Amino acid sequence: MNDVIGRASSPTTQTITPHLVVRGAGQAAAWYQEALGAQVGPRIPVPGGKFIQIELRLGDSMVMLADEFPDMGVLSPLSLGGTYGALHIATEDADALWDRAVAAGARVHQPLQDMFWGDHHGQLIDPFGHRWGISQHLRDVPPEEVTQAAAAMFGGEAG
Fold it and tell me: Are the beta carbons of 67 and 84 closer than 8 angstroms?
C-alpha cells in the first residue's frame, strides 16, 4: 500500500491535507485558533479581502482554509446547506476542548459521551458549517465487541 500512496509532496505536507471552504476565511482562522487551539500559519490573500489559502496546524496535522468563490463553484457548507462529512480531532482532554469550542459558538451535533468503541466522543458544527468530531481514547475494545455493539445499535446482529 505504501508503494501506491508514496510520500507527501514536501516535508510540510501530509499525505492527505483537508482543504475547507468557509465563508469568511480570516474570521474562521481566528475562530479555529480560539476554539480549537489551531496555530495559524501563512496566508495567501487575493483582492477583495479574501484568501485562497490559510494554513492551520492542529497538533501534528495541517488543514487549509479558503474563502468561498461562488463564481468559480467554490462553496462552503453554509451555501450548500450542509457538510459532506466530519473532521476528527483526537485529544487527551476531550471535555476541555469540547467546552472551549462550545463557548466559542460551536453547536452540538452529537453530545460528548463514552462510546462503545472505547472513546469519549461527540460532534460539533462550527459557525462555518463544518462538522468536527472530538474524542479521547479511554480503553481498547476488541474488534469483535465493537462489531457486535455497532450491529446492535443499528437493530441487528453482526453479519
Answer: no
Q: Nearest 5°: phi and psi at 38?
A: -65, 145
- 121 grid coordinates: 466522543
Report d(CA 122, CA 63) in Å as an integer. 20
DSSP string of 102-113?
HHTT-EEEEEEE
pLDDT tens digits along 5-16: 444 444 555 778
In sequence order, the β-bridge partners of residue 134 are 89, 122
β-pairing verdict for 86-90 and 131-137: parallel
pTM value is: 0.85
Between CA 124 and CA 121 the distance in angstroms is 10
**Hey, what's the torsion of the CAs at 93, 96, 97, 103, to 10 degrees?**
170
